[in-house]
Write a structure and sequence with these properties.
About 25% of the residues lie in helices and about 20% in strands. It is an alpha+beta fold and about 325 residues long. Helix 3 runs antiparallel to helix 4 and helix 4 packs across helix 6. The two termini are about 35 Å apart.
Length: about 325
């Protein structure tokens, strides 16, 4: 997750209960209709629809909002999406919620430590196979969230368009790289719903952190999801996203505005990422400047490759950037 805006005002990411601060420097950012209201109790399964239940892990923080939401799909014979962090209390809560049911599939949207590690405990308890796009991609470094789960390797690798079926439910895997190279979303055909992982979240924008995160891929995946027919998205963090097409259009506009803001920094002589971050995120909690810097780098890599910015050599966090043609 990253820095999000609401009503044309930027807010810092913060754990629930902490004050959010306004930024005077982000009035160019497009308004995104975030929703942060969510009623729940940790470890208690909530029924969200006839086929969907959710158990939220007690791992709140600046990148997880209230915590990781693990989804249980189906009744009797079920799939579990994003078993979550390796927390004893969360694993115990999931096992209680699944008592008397058969777990047929353990699905993972991507390999961050708040999403995939607990899957091994459910695999041991149920004997179900794990499903994902593949192990964590990219190189080391640049991890500003919980970090990468480099131990997870799926038993079954899913490609784009692969379909998983159970008793009364059908899930279609959609490869949506950008946040990570191995990110999957899952479309639930019977309810015209989509589990959007961290790619689209209703409470915040998404961290895109190189080398595994890629802004061009992220924007392409956003555009793809924006054309999907589903009427509701269920992200792994935060509440449901209704009218997802309109929401995604606002996310795309926000990213385009961010690149315009970076271009203005370059024209103003701010050529290094730390200087840009201090200017662009002046009123944001400095603890989040690392995440902001990674997203700015992802934008700049994209801008260099599309000719909207320039630098000597391959762009990285230490590069000096200039307007194109300089």
């Amino acid at each position: 997750m990253s820095l999000g805006s609401q009503n044309s005002t930027q807010y810092s990411l913060c754990p629930p209960g902490r004050r959010r601060t306004r930024s005077r420097t982000t009035d160019i950012a497009a308004a995104i209709p975030f929703r942060r209201d969510l009623e729940f109790s940790y470890g208690v399964p909530d029924t969200l629809s006839p086929l969907i239940r959710r158990v939220i892990a007690d791992n709140p923080g600046p990148f997880t909002f209230h915590g990781t939401g693990t989804y249980i799909v189906g009744r009797g014979e079920v799939a579990v999406i994003d078993a979550g962090p390796d927390l004893e209390g969360h694993v115990a809560a999931l096992k209680r919620a699944l008592e008397g049911e058969t777990v047929s599939h353990l699905l993972v949207t991507h390999t961050h430590l708040d999403h995939s590690p607990a899957v091994r405990h459910l695999k041991e308890a149920s004997g179900a196979k794990t499903y994902g796009f593949g192990p964590h991609g990219g190189g080391a470094g640049g991890e500003v969230e919980a970090g990468a789960d480099r131990d997870f390797v799926p038993d079954v690798r899913l490609g784009d368009g692969d379909v998983i079926e159970g008793a009364g439910w059908t899930l279609e895997a959609l490869h949506t790289p950008g946040h990570t190279s191995n990110h999957l979303c899952f479309a639930l055909h019977e309810e015209n719903a989509l589990f959007s992982g961290d790619h689209v979240m209703g409470w915040s924008t998404t961290v895109v952190s190189p080398p595994d995160g890629n802004m061009a891929d992220y924007m392409a995946s956003l555009a793809r999801l924006g054309g999907r027919p589903e009427s509701v998205f269920w992200p792994t963090h935060g509440p449901a996203i209704e009218a997802p097409g309109e929401f995604i259009a606002a996310l795309i506009a926000h990213r385009e505005a961010r690149e315009a803001q970076i271009s203005a920094c370059l024209e103003g002589g701010f050529t290094r990422i730390p200087d840009m971050v201090r200017r662009m995120y002046a009123d944001v909690d400095p603890v989040l400047h690392g995440a902001a810097g990674r997203s700015v780098l992802a934008h700049l890599i994209h801008m260099v490759r599309t000719g909207s910015a320039a630098c000597a050599g391959e762009p990285d966090g230490a590069s000096e950037f200039t307007p194109p043609g300089n």
